Amino acid sequence: MNELIECILNEIERKIQCVRMNFESETWRATVPSEQGWYLIKTNAPIEVLRGVGSPPEKRKAHINIPETVNETLKLQGIAITQRRNDDYVVYNGEAKNLKARAKEHERGHAKTYCLGLSNYEILRNYNWTFCYVAASRCEVLQNGDKLLRLAVEQAWRVRNGWPVLCKK
After folding, report:
1. CA-based end-to-end distance of the chain
2. pLDDT of residue 149
């Protein structure tokens, strides 16, 4: 792997911060900066629960179709990240121009943005959801968070750690 990308991935692992998502209150997002960077979402929701949530609400056509995406990702045998026992596992990772806005989209949804919209699924409220992030400004290796490099780091993370079940191929 490219030396710069490897260095950034190592720095992200050292500096990542996590906050428990709360579908009943917006206060959990207070610590998430309105900056560019990288993030991942973890849960203890079993894959079978994710497969059974149904399609996104009709008004949210841009949302990720969770069951369809899980089924497609699981075809990547040996590459897809799956749950061990009842532990939390990474189901999504990405890069964002604005981490706080992206956190809100994945929680609440957005009519025109490709996102999870987790709070739209009542059954998912029964499980733990964690939003972990690192702002590019906190990285000594790369502070400007250039979009192309953010994308490269996002993909390199998947090469290193596996493919999250809610990420499209």
Report:
1. 20
2. 84
* Mean pLDDT taken over the chain: 91
Distances (CA, A) of 130 to 19, 47, 169: 6, 16, 22
> Residue 38 in 3-state DSSP?
strand
Task: Give residue limits of the domains in the chain.
Answer: 3-161
Spatial CA neighbour of 50 closest among 33, 27, 74, 34? 74
> CA-CA distances (angstroms) from residue 38 to 24, 47, 93?
24, 24, 8
26-30, 35-39, 51-55, 138-142, range with the lowest pLDDT: 138-142
Q: Chain-centre distance of CA 26, in angstroms?
A: 18
**CA 29 to mean position of chain CA atoms:** 14
- DSSP code per residue over 119-155: GG-GGGGGS-EEEEEEEGGG-SS-SS--HHHHHHHHH
Is the Cβ–Cβ distance between 15 and 7 less than 8 Å? Answer: no
- pTM higher than 0.85, yes or no? yes
CB-based contact 153:94 (threshold 8 Å):
no
Q: Phi and psi of 56, rounded to 5°?
A: -60, 155
